[in-house]
Amino acid sequence: MSASAVHAEIYPFQAKYAVYYKDVRFGSGERTLRRLNGDSYKITTQASVLFGTGDYTNNSWFNFKDNVLTTDRYEHETSVMGFGDVSSASFEDNGDILMDFEDGHVEIKSKPDVMDVGAMTIVVQNDLKLGKTAFSYEWVFEKKLETIAFEVVQEETINTIYGDMIAVKVKEVKKKKNRATYYWFVPKLDYQLAQVEVYKHGVRKSYLKLTALTFQ
User: Fold this and answer.
1) What is the pLDDT at residue 83?
2) pLDDT tens digits, residue range 199-216?
3) Which of 22, 84, 133, 196 could form a disulfide with 79 if both were Cys (CB 3.0 to 4.6 A apart)?
4) Distance between CA atoms of 92 and 97, rounded to whole angstroms?
């Protein structure tokens, strides 16, 4: 299994989003964190675009105990215009990742601190709670390991479903200088993700806005 140290409480929630492309709404998304039993959790991320012509679902199971988040397994499914792709993976105690796809099986020799994307979103929130201003993670998806890095830009006031609120603006550090992605997390909402903007050549191409949030 993979592990990443975090030191903040985890609060189950359901967050819903509207997805826009060039200011035209073309989809919706949802993140739901559930506590299963004891220290076990499941986070589900779903998205649907273009009136259901494209769908995305990712389920991630992990444990949180003694201030440590430990990834257990994930299941991922995408569907575009009726053509689907399904994959899953389990994280072993030695750090190896066993991945299953419709066309075969892949074993990745890894190390214990690698995560999947679902668990990583929870660690990002907790690292911000700890006051970190720069952080990076190794994560696995589609038969390969990748490193992703973030840095805090500044605090900004943004408009949310609860009115104007102070948010921490975070930038994804990318090798391609002509692309940029920014994320806004609201401290008073348990550092929930409230907004995302994607830029290409300095022009905003798409964005995401929080439309509903409930804590379980």
Assistant:
1) 67
2) 999 999 999 999 999 998
3) 84
4) 6
Q: Report residue 114's pLDDT band, with 50, 70 and 90 as the boundaries.
A: confident
Tokens at 17, concatenated: 């989003």
Q: Which of 48, 52, 54 is nearest to 30 (CA)?
A: 48
Rounded distance between C-alpha atoms, residue 198 and residue 179, angstroms: 8
Whether the Cβ atoms of residue 123 and residue 4 lie closer than 8 Å to each other: yes
User: Which position has the token pair 């035209």?
Assistant: 24
Q: Token pair 């994607």 is at which residue?
A: 198
User: Nearest to residue 15, comparing CAs of 51, 45, 57?
Assistant: 45
Check residue 176 and give left, alpha or beta (phi > 0: left; psi -120 to 50: alpha). beta
Question: pTM for the full model?
Answer: 0.90
The first and second tokens of residue 167, run together, are: 């948010």
> CB atoms < 10 A from the CB of 136, how many?
10
Q: For every residue of the chain, which 3-state class applies, written as one string?
A: CEEEECCCCCCCEEEEEEEEECCEEEEEEEEEEEEEECCEEEEEEEEEECCCCEEEEEEEEEEEECCEEEEEEEEEEEEECCEEEEEEEEECCCCCEEEEECCEEEEECCCCCCECHHHHHHHHHHHHHCCCCEEEEEEEECCEEEEEEEEEEEEEEEEECCEEEEEEEEEEECCCCCEEEEEEEEHHHCCEEEEEEEEECCEEEEEEEEEEEEEC
